[in-house]
Amino acid sequence: MALFDLPLDELRSYRTASVEPDDFDAFWAKTLEEARVHDLDARFEPVETGLKNVEVFDVTFAGFGGHPVKGWLTLPAGTTEPLPAVVEFIGYGGGRGLPHTHLLWASAGFAHFVMDTRGQGSGWSGGDTPDPAGSGPAHPGFMTRGIEAPESYYYRRVFTDAVRAVEAARSHPLIDASRTAAVGASQGGGITLAVGGLVPDLAAIAPDVPFLCDFPRATTITDRDPYREVGRYLKVHRGRTEQVMRTLAYFDGVHFAARGRSPALFSVALEDQTCPPSTVFGAFNAWAHSDKEIAVYDFNDHEGGGPFQQAEQLRWLPARL
Description:
By secondary structure, the protein is α/β, with parallel strands linked by helices. Helix content is 31%, strand content 20%. A 9-stranded mixed beta sheet has the order 1-2-3-5-4-6-7-8-9, sandwiched between helices. Strand 6, helix 5 and strand 7 form a beta-alpha-beta unit. The chain is globular, with a radius of gyration of 18 Å. The N and C termini lie far apart (38 Å).
């Protein structure tokens, strides 16, 4: 697919048309307050993996509604002093997978915490966290679960889990809470943006080709899933567009970006039909902190920079942690 979105010079000045709800901050403050009524109860159980250079812990903590959420914590072997931490969120449909697939950040000397995504983990990597909450009629996938109202929407639970994941990581004695970063690609990038807007004292974030941004544009410019799930839902549920867009506005990465208080390294691919470049730039241009960069991959689709972007993150993050 050749370039299909705005030219790069226009992308650099693009601003979203997504309208921020008047009670956006109050909604999220109440959501997190309700979640924190439940004891975080973060547990770290050692796991024997056969890996000699890292130590792995099977993590369980209380997320949205007190529901148990799984994760992995990986530390360089022999760690005795608190380390800077990278908290990572997973792409759409995937779960935490197996520990040996998450070695990059511990190999670079960081503590690495990977959050499982509730209800997912049967697409391309396995997961271990159910989503006990139900929803009204929804299109197959996760994008329209509970989309009738922000209070019931699926990503309210996921974003809350993600904030609690940062809190769980910071509770471990071998993690330096003051040097904690959030990273993720695609859906993981969108979750990273939410965390960046909801956790004011992160040291840095690195959203890679982020999903869940600029819903009014994303749902109309691409035919590719997962955004297209919303269009197919509305094709059946005629007349609900305004209601659906109202719900999605509470979860739009551009509104979390406007609250970003940490340095940020984004990436975007100009042939990306899954997360169109204008939607990524909508969030990048809204990111409030002045220390921000965006890596542009001119001829890539949703794979973005792949290992090249990981190399950029390995260059960029240590200076901020």
